[in-house]
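Practice problem 4.
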């Protein structure tokens, strides 16, 4: 059966700009050594070299027509969807704006984390209103007070794509893992975390029953364990 491959071309996304080295070396060196190239990548030329039909679209409204055309030609095809601004300067500005936006989010998360540490360490509300640059004492250890598993089984609005078994495709089963941690041995105000264990039928080797048994054993082994922080 002919295959249509949709390639989302975002110019590499600029993910390497999130490296800590960005900003500490000259921009010319960073661009040449680490940055994803913004030009010189011609997917159409690559397709032509291998005799594969290629279409390039820039607007969502044009994607439907490109897909329809590829399906009717009865051959393997590539549809390239170009996202982002055209031109190296505009793309560079978009990448930097993305880095700045994530930096703002990280700063907000760091402030919230420091506030949480202050609450766990028993700081007063007056101290919470002061800047956090003074260096709050971090916990020295965590103790796993309690681990619990709660199974769930839900009906799906659409069948799972990982299995063709109709008996399993319309149900989603899993486990909710609840972990209670004592901070520096203080059991009165445990920190609580919640996670999920949910193997997909047809994708993961373990069944939900096997995953439950494995997790239950780990819970019994880990309860009461003290975890020191730091090197």
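Answer key:
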């Amino acid at each position: 059966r002919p295959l249509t491959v949709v390639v989302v071309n975002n110019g590499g996304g600029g993910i390497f700009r999130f490296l800590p080295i960005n900003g500490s070396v000259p921009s010319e060196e960073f661009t040449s050594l680490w940055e994803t190239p913004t030009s010189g990548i011609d997917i159409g030329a690559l397709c032509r070299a291998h005799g594969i039909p290629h279409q390039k679209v820039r607007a969502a409204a044009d994607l439907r027509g490109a897909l329809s055309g590829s399906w009717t030609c009865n051959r393997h095809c590539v549809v390239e969807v170009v996202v982002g601004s055209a031109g190296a300067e505009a793309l560079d500005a978009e990448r930097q704006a993305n880095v700045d936006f994530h930096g703002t989010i990280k700063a907000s998360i760091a402030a919230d984390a420091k506030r949480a540490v202050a609450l766990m360490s028993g700081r007063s509300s007056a101290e919470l209103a002061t800047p956090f640059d003074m260096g709050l004492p971090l916990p020295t250890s965590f103790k796993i007070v309690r681990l619990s598993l709660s199974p769930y089984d839900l009906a799906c609005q659409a069948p799972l794509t990982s299995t063709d078994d109709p008996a399993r495709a319309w149900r989603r089963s899993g486990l909710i893992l609840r972990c209670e941690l004592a901070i520096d041995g203080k059991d009165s105000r445990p920190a609580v975390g919640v996670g999920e264990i949910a193997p997909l039928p047809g994708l993961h080797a373990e069944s939900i029953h096997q995953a439950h048994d494995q997790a239950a054993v780990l819970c019994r082994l880990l309860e009461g364990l003290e975890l020191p922080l730091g090197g």
